[in-house]
Design a protein that fits this description.
The chain is an alpha+beta fold and 184 residues long. It contains seven helices and five strands; from the N terminus they run H-E-H-E-H-H-E-H-E-H-E-H. Strands 1, 2, 3, 4 and 5 form a five-stranded antiparallel beta sheet that branches. The two termini are 34 Å apart. The structure holds flavin mononucleotide.
């Protein structure tokens, strides 16, 4: 697949199943992301892979954050949060590891992590896997951030849910560049 084809046909695929990428495919996916543009080569990121039983531990944390913010959270909502990470055989959590820097503000560091996650999602897609980028309230929950190895100033920029595609691909939306591009 040419790079242009990969870029123009990338399509989030939320319904995925086992198997996930092999170890060598995962290495390719991670390497694709780690070549993201990054002002000052700060590497303001940390990527955490979640597979097998660790997905249940992540789900338990998701559920715990709901109950901490509202002990009356309906059971169905708690169960849904607990099961959320089981929707894919592989999750890559992309954390912003914010670094105070005189010339490189937070927004640029978020941009670098986002570019890395986008590169990983493109690589997963190009290898034939389904991938969807999710956040949800959990991405900003201190409990989740610290369990993934982050500090209070960090946050999860995205969870990539990756696996073998299940079901049909959704139609690609029509995008007209004229709508979003102008000439100065
Ligand atoms: C930062 C970010 C956070 C997102 N969070 C969610 C999410 O929590 N749940 C969700 O269904 N989609 C989320 N999305 C959107 C999907 O990843 C995807 O882009 C969307 O389903 C549209 O599909 P498409 O990218 O193929 O057009 C998020 C995207 C980004 C960039």
């Amino acid at each position: 697949m040419s790079i242009i084809d990969a870029l123009t046909t990338r399509n989030a695929h939320p319904r995925v199943q086992s198997p996930g990428p092999s170890a060598s495919e995962l290495d390719k996916i991670l390497s694709a992301g780690l070549r993201a543009p990054d002002h000052g080569h700060l590497r303001p990121w940390r990527f955490v892979t979640v597979t097998n039983d660790a997905r249940q531990r992540l789900g338990d944390l998701f559920a715990e954050t709901l109950l901490l913010s509202n002990p009356e959270t309906p059971q169905a909502q708690v169960d849904k949060a607990r099961a959320a990470p089981l929707r894919a055989p592989l999750i890559i959590a992309g954390l912003l590891k914010y670094q105070d820097h005189p010339k490189i503000p937070r927004v640029e560091q978020v941009a670098a992590v986002s570019a890395a996650l986008y590169g990983m999602s493109l690589a997963a897609d190009a290898l034939g896997y389904g991938c969807v980028w999710r956040t949800g309230t959990y991405a900003r929950e201190p409990l989740v951030i610290s369990a993934l190895g982050g500090a209070p100033a960090d946050e999860v920029i995205g969870f990539l849910y990756i696996g073998t595609r299940a079901g049909d691909a959704k139609p690609l939306p029509e995008v007209s560049s004229a709508e979003y591009v102008s000439q100065f």
